[in-house]
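B., you asked whether I could sanity-check this one before it goes into the benchmark set. Here's the sequence:
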Amino acid sequence: METYKFKTNINCGSCVRAVTPHLNKLEGVQEWKVDTDNPDKVLEVKADAADAQAIKSTLEKAGFHAEQI
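And here's what the prediction gave me:
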């Protein structure tokens, strides 16, 4: 299983709720969380089949920016 980290603009509970169905539907994602207290709003995704580009594309479709760190 891979762990990916992204700097995002997911900055509040409403943003987390907005992205939840998109990340939950992404095949291969086992677990994810967003640290909204971190200035970079770091999203950490644990996945066994999804890759960084698939995760980034999913976030962009949901209306959020993601930059892998």
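One thing to flag: Residues 44 and 60 are 16 Å apart (CA to CA). Otherwise nothing jumped out at me.
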